[in-house]
Design a protein that fits this description.
The structure is a single chain. By secondary structure, the chain is an alpha/beta fold. It contains three helices and seven strands. It has a single domain, classed as STAS domain (Transcription Regulator spoIIAA). The longest helix is centred in the middle third of the chain and has 16 residues. The relative contact order is 0.17.
Length: 117
């Protein structure tokens, strides 16, 4: 599976002993769901029943429209039993606010953990 790049957003998949997805750059598209949903549908097929880390630490900015596809992604991962740990930069106020809300959602899911670094 290749990586994803659109404008200033890059999503990098590293497969190996530990599968990792890194979000980098800026996600400011008005409809990021339409851009990344197909990509994550393909990635999800490759990761079923495997462990995954998703790292947002190097994401410089995301608009509120980006939260919806992230919620869908973590729910899809959970529904497919992909044990996932999501990391964010707890020292960036915008990441702290966004991911604290996602932590609340993750508490209702069996396979998702969200942690600040």
């Amino acid at each position: 599976m290749s990586n994803f790049k659109h404008d200033n957003l890059e999503i990098i998949l590293e497969k190996g002993q530990k599968n990792k997805i890194f979000w980098r750059g800026i996600s400011d598209n008005r409809d990021p769901y339409s851009l990344i949903d197909g990509y994550f549908t393909k990635v999800l097929d490759e990761l079923k029943n495997k462990d995954l880390e998703i790292d947002f630490v190097e994401l410089q900015y995301m608009n509120s429209s980006t939260v919806t596809p992230i919620i869908k992604l973590i729910r899809d991962l959970n529904n497919n039993a992909v044990k996932t740990t999501v990391f964010y930069d707890k020292n960036l106020n915008w990441q702290l606010a966004s991911f604290r809300a996602l932590e609340t959602i993750a508490k209702t899911l069996n396979h998702i953990t969200i942690k600040g670094k």
